Amino acid sequence: MNNTLRLSLSGMSCAGCVASIEDAINSVAAVKSANVNFAERTVTIGGDVLPQQVIAAVRNAGYDAAELNGLDDEADKDQAEKRYYFKLLKQAGVAALLGVPLFIFGMAGLLPGLEAVNARLFWFGIGLLTLLVLFYSAGHFYSGALKSAKNHNANMDTLIALGTGSAWVYSMLIVALPDLPVMAQHAYFEAAAIIVALINLGAALETRARGKTSKAIKRLIGLQPKTARVIRSGIEQDITIDEVGFDDTLRVRPGERIAVDGVIIQGHSTVDESMLTGEPIPIKKKQGDTVVAGSINKAGSFLFQAKKIGKDTTLAQIIAMVRSAQSAKPQIGRLVDKVSAVFVPSVLIFAVLTFLAWTNFGGAEQASTLAIVTSMTVLIIACPCALGLATPISIMVGVGKAAEYGSLIRNGDALQQARKLNVIVLDKTGTVTEGRPSVTAVLAAGNWNEDTLLQWAGSVEQGSEHPLAEAIVAAAKEKHLPLLAVEQFSAIAGQGIKANLAGKTVLLGNRRLMNDNAIDVSSVLGEVIKLEQQAQTPMFIAVDKQVVGIISVADAIKADSAAAVQRMHKLGIKVVMLTGDNRVTAQAVAKQLGIDQVIAEVLPQDKADVIASLQAEGNIVAMVGDGINDAPALALADIGFAIGSGTDVAIESADVTLMRGSLHAVVDAIAISKVTVRNIKQNLFGAFIYNVIGIPIAAGVIFPFTGLLLSPMIAGAAMAMSSFTVVTNANRLRFFTPQESKS
Amino acid sequence: MNTLIINSLGFVLIAIIIWWFWLAPYSAKKHRNQE
Description:
The complex is a heterodimer. By secondary structure, chain A is of the alpha+beta class. Chain A is elongated.
């Protein structure tokens, strides 16, 4: 069995750490996959592996990890993040307390030069004070840099440590050895302190903004009640949720949240499931109906039996799904991870080259000043964090947003494909329609009467699980017609049913079934065509090769299907309906909805072929379906949308699971995917442009023309702001509302 | 003379960076994969 393990990570300063931690974990035997979520500071590990082994590997690599189990651990993680935020603020404050006065007095010309002995003593004191401040406020950068260097890695810590460290060492050298001929006579203590203050401040702001991005998951976790009222041996008592056992009887009072998944055994009520499905109207529940954890009981009170507890409840599974989706990396993200891993060493080399270039070509007088200032500024301004954060932070917010609208995006690549989508294939039954067909007409032929016809039809259909069969059985039961015993029942996929009843061969199904068995249907054909044109599905019944009547079944079209199809058209997407139903009925449905193309009378096993042929025409195809027979098509499509009320197989095969039945959810998911990918691109573009422009300017390329040099302090401020900007841009996604909800 | 020393040191530093951050981990990974 493939287990998954979740750890919270600490000591991660930058995107470069993602690769080193993943490498370290992957080197542990039995680890099948390791996926670090940089934005959430967690790692999800697949494989049969002991947590201790993985934690040891992470520690070896210079980071720390702790196992995340339940909701309490999540709360601990939140607390830890909060403490980290205040610590960063304190560190920034202490560094600013030294750096800002030094900077202001220096600008005002109130500080002594380095010529007099007394002045040098003063600067020596300042140097020691700076060392203390760096030790307190930047200690984590130095230890982080050292740890990762030991592991052949370089990250943001490396850059900050080298940048501020070289500023301090250089300044101390000129204070201690005033006769050094090549050195410029200026100390950079204030620069080191202010850079550290700004970077800590930036990290604090980023931590805080990052906390907001996981609001969606926190909202889901918040739906889980902590206690439940259980009845054991006739005694009612409140117990914690962990103590609820399988088959326990639980009481739910009005206004309470349901604790676990189960089946109502007594009483009835209406239940608000909107927080899980996005479906706004409370649903009536009676004895025998299922209830899910996290939903709210409205008016009535009822007893139910626990059927799914702990990690198995629908809510727990949704949380797990959203979480894994939030850690998903689309192709673009994987590429960025690779770039981030080589980014820092490249910047180190660039800084050395900058130093050498100014030493050689900077002119006799200012070469050393230019060399030291520019190389230091290059180290400080380069920011791999913005690059590394760009993708995961937007995905976290985007996937969370989609979950809010009842769409669980399970595959990161699906996000990227959504914007290229130009064909949506809709399964008819249960997707476009309610999926709860009912018998609308029973027409008997020859000397048969309608009740006998329905009785026979119900009898042969009682062994079938097809929705049309269930409708016929329900109609027979409603008329209190006793169902008869049948023999040799066999279902013919895409056609109907064959069975023996009272010694006679009964065939019940569509025209294809009749044609294949060479049965003449001309006597009822006129009626059949009329029904088909009304978007109904008529079925023939033949007894011993003679047509004895037709039963027509209609499946109501979902009220909002037409509006959703219209929204798809607005996005420039062609809508295709795929169904096993007959062509006339399918076309009648399509006409009502404004669907562009109908592919009817498709056998279940051929649905995937239809998707393949659409793809072969160069289309990017999405499939929306719910049944087991849709699974291959869902898996093959560029994006598979499974209707959540559908079968587990369909959900497993799909990229996106829709928690509500409405087709609007499909359009919402597409809209959210589009804005998410756009957001990722904005972030990546911003981060890329920032580095591409910032690094050369820091290296002094504009100095020969303008005489302007970027101050290392400005570089520190820019660096601090770049990550914060990326996180803030991603947070904008939280305010996105898909079109339907706006109107 | 000073410039010459600085240049030499600079290129040695670049060589060390390339070796430490690329060549060494790459050969270690290759070695691990062979095992």
